[in-house]
Amino acid sequence: MTPSLTGSLEAATPDADAGVELTFTVRNEGTDTVTLQFTDACKADFAVADEETGREVWRFTDGRMFAQLLSADELEPGEATTYEAEWETPKSGEFTAVAELRARETTCEARTALSV
């Protein structure tokens, strides 16, 4: 059985002085419960690329360390979970934000356009 996961990504800038808040929602669209297994405390990674050049300008996991621990999230059919990150010091421009689930043996990602 292949998990039927869909992802969506929202990017919000609450005010001009704040960073960009990224919210990645993963939904189980299948008929069976899906167990997402993780090997560390980082359950999703986020990246931002310059729309014009395609060059990555920020990645959530860069320069960070995460506790090494085994954990699992279960998603019942129709259930969703969210993972969040903040790009604290964004620069101005047009970007593409990407979120990717870091679960073992399961893939799910989402993209969205972002204007700062």
CATH fold annotation: Immunoglobulin-like
- Give the proportion of residues in helices: under 10%
Structural domain count: 1
Shape: globular
Largest sheet: 4 strands, antiparallel
The count of β-strands is 9
CATH class placement = Mainly Beta
Please explain how this structure is put together.
By secondary structure, the protein is mainly beta. It has one domain (5-115): Immunoglobulin-like. Helices cover 0% and strands 53% of the residues. It is built from no helices and 9 strands. The protein has strands at residues 5-12, 20-28, 34-38, 44-50, 56-59, 71-75, 80-87, 94-101, 109-115. The strands form 3 sheets. It has a 4-stranded antiparallel β-sheet with strand order 5-4-8-9, with no helix packed on it. It is globular. The model has no long low-confidence stretch (mean pLDDT 91).
